[in-house]
Input
Amino acid sequence: MRCHLIDYLSSIWLVGLISLAYVGFLFVLAILGDRIRKSSWQPYVYSLTLAIFCTTWAFYGTVEQTVRHGWLLAPTYLGAIVLITVGWKILDRIIQIARQENSTTISDFISARFGHSRGLAVLISVLSILGIVPYIALQLKAVSGSFQIITDTTSVQLSWYSDPTLFIAAVMAIFSILFGTRTVDSSESHQGMMLAIAFESLVKLFALSAVGIFAVYGLYDGFGDLFSKALANEHLHEVLTTYENPSVYLTHALIGGIAIIALPRQFHVAVVEYRSEQDLKTARWMFPLYLLLINLFLLPLALAAFMHGDVLESFNFITLQLPLAFGQTELATFAYVGGLSAGTSMVIIASITLATMICNEIIIPLLIKLRLQGDSRDIKERVLNIRRIAIVIVMAFAFVYYRMLSQFHSLSEIGLLSFTAIAQFAPPILIGLIWQGANRMGAYAGLLSGFLLWFYCLFLPVLANAGWVHSGFMDGPFGLEFLRPQALLGFDNMNPVVHGTFWSLMANTLALVIFSLYYKPGFSDIEQAQRFVEPFSGQRSAAPRRYAIRTDDLKALLQRFINPAKIDALFKDFSNPVTGRLITRGVVSESMLKAADRLLSSVLGRRGSDLLLHNLVDDKSPQFAHLNSLMEEVSEVVLFNRDLLNSVLHSLVQGITVVDENHNLVAWNQRFANLYDFPPGYLYVGLSAEMVVRFIARSGGYGEGDVEAQVQMRMSEIENRMSLHYVRRAADRRYIELIGNPISTNLYITVYSDITEYRNIEDELRKANEILEDRVEERTQELTALNADLQRANRNKTRFLAAAGHDLVQPLNSASLFSASIINKLQKAASRCPELSTDILPVAQNMEHSLSSAESLLNELLEISKLDADIVRANVQIFRLSSVLRSLVEEFRPLFQRKGIELRFIDCQLMVESDPVLLRRILQNLLANALRYTDRGRVLIGVRRSRDHVRLQVLDSGRGIPPDDLHMIFEEFHRVESQGDNGSKGLGLGLSIVQRMCKLLQHPIQAQSELGRGSVFTMAIPITEQLPEPETPAAAQVSLSTDQLILCIDNERQITEGMSELLSDWGYQVVAAINDEEALQKLQGRTPALAIVDYHLDFGKTGLDAMAALQPHWQQPVPCLVITADYTDDVKERIQALDYQLLKKPVKAMALRAVLNQIMGYRE
Output
């Protein structure tokens, strides 16, 4: 007796330790899994977590079913396989919408479809508890029963407080809390927990397979031997060969298929834990394969168990009892661990999902509504504590159900009872996805009707069998037989599960449809219906929250619930970039509010988030209280615009596709389908863009080439959101133009146009052009020859201008030098001979004036010729405008004072972009014009700033210009005739030169005038903030030494003589020569202080050549002043390259003296 007690106690402790060690290992595995940031195994883990569908019912109850019915494939598995393989689009659509709406529970998802109804979410949460608690009780019963069987304690009758099931429930509650309430964000991935559940899925598969292999190959000689002996058994032969009413099998299959999308635990692992498109792709083949493998040995196990029924106590725990009956203790232990895996994984996920619904849909909204959430900063811990308490309450309810009711039903019956209850969620889910007319009133009516009939037809008989309801009630209330719970309205030949499923789902569906048709939907119902029925047909996102909330108020709210790192990332754009402080007066944007709503929903659920934001609005923005009524009024307009947009999309002649951020097709038009001959029904919302691209590539839509390379290139364009525009020639010789562009943060549109007709027209035009090519070639040759002649003529003209300028200016230059010398000598001799200054000096001065006028006329002719010949180039610089104006006014002021006219200017310090030389020349012409036509008054150079330009004006109070002449003043040789010209004649080229120079500088010029009051000339010069390059300071002028030697070289003797006379009068020693050889002879070894040379000398030589020959004979480098009448840029660049000075002919005495001052000053 003592040894038996020791064995009994040791077996209990050993199995208990094994159980605790196994669950502890799962907890460690979950912790390690959380540390893995990213894994290529994620799709396989996701597929195995879907196997949470296989609970202890699958491990024990399904085998029991197979014994009774002889099913080759369990119908619930068949339903799940059909949905995941054939109806996977439904699951994919649910996943995408749930992620869009941030739904973390089945109640959140369904209520989101029906306008985010809070009451509907509470109802679904309560109904989920009623439907799932029996299923959790099933797990407790299975784990407890297996524990008692493995420890051989089934005969021991214990009170509730000493029942090992209570201990098992407590342990499962603890581990559910440890696994599922470590973070407050229910939308975050529980990567570690999912890894542990995936491991449990493998354990229960291997355990069940191991027992099945033992039954087939340990007890029999394989499948053939087993089945032959089973068919020899009279009862089993009847079970295996007798045709059974298919309604039971099909009903169970329907319930199994619905469970994949409606069970709260399946919703959690399929939706919340979904990470990428590859997850579902892998699950579509891996999950059905798992179900087939776990089903493989169910029938063999059932047959073997029945044929050895004499050694089994019952058929509830065949998987465990069969190896025990034949002494396979280790195998039985492995089977026990497999059953424990099936039970713990379901209980953990189911209790977590129910606790989340209780917390987010019931408790938190109630606390917020009653303003009882408190001001504690540790409110996140409070939310976690609520969920932990909810887990304990759920497990307590399950334990109570187990103690009171589960003993009256087998494991399979309890599983079917729970599945049928959860199946009531199917009508609002499925109908809500396909019919926009479904609204919240229909959902209320459907769910209540369905659950009432479920309770009446299925759960009430359970209460009657347990003695909680009078057994006479099963014959119909008040003796009404047509109201019998299991034979409603006379349907008394139906299986109870089939009967209850039929009536509950039919009532649910009819009530949903009828009440939806009767009650008018609200705006939120209409809006959410559009999102669910056509979730990706446009640029939709989660329902907008139009709240006027300040950033500091929203941040203070989020800080009580959300991780600080997430809050900082959300409010980054609303923080001061320097101090990092929050900009408190900013109003939260739509996108930020949406992100904040998503964060709150992940912690508190949609209802809690709604209530908190509404409370914040009520406190801060009461003017938004009637927003919903306003939205009701505009909803019809929104729907009309949506329908109009849809009509426009399908009426376009171009094909259009829109792809979302997951690279799935979300919108297209019929023209696109016709363009590439897609089969009817091939295109649908959510179809992978890669499948669309591959179909086009295989059909030759992208032309000839490697299909995989074409698919890879096109998908790269879509994934990288590239803007593209190109043409592809299809295999059928059509030309298709593709234009792709990103149209929002997550959508990509491609437009397809058949341009074959245009390409054919291009081909015809190309052929016509080829015919004309010969003619064009001939004309081109002719034009080339003419162009060459024109260029040659232009070069000849340029050379003529240079030569003519030189030949014409030479005599004037000589006369000017002689005149300046004569005047200088007369002025010096005036003190000795006054008659000279009285009689001869005025004649000399008049001669100089005449020469100056002739020089001015010649310069104008040459200057306008160079402008028209495009010889002059603008040297645009940045300089201060005052530098030009001040020197110009100083130059002209004596002339104006001599005539009695006041000359003023605005001293402007603005920096401008222009050519200072050309700008000075323009102003000289305008001032000369003003001097000529102004008799009295004043002339003003004005400056006015206008945005990025300065308006430079020359205003005079002169005679004005007649209106008839105003539009002609810029034409060549046009002069305005008026009285009082005082003989000042010109050619009429001054303003023409001004206009051409302004055009060259891109300075628009305008003229305004009023006869008798004066004229205004205005030009616009661009302003810049850039500073000019620093200028080399001018050398200070020094007094010139009278013994300095200057060398003059010119091929014209008259020029050298005149220059010698003038320079000698100024006190210089002068050596004059006509070439470098003569210069060497006359210098007699002396080194001059300065050389003044003409550019063009005889025999094709230049003054630069002469200087190159002379410089080696001198003891030091001698500065050079080059005088020329050749104004071309080439000459100017060659002179500047040698660092020589340049002075243009005809030379004026004052200009020459200024240059000498500069050069000789540096020399000193």
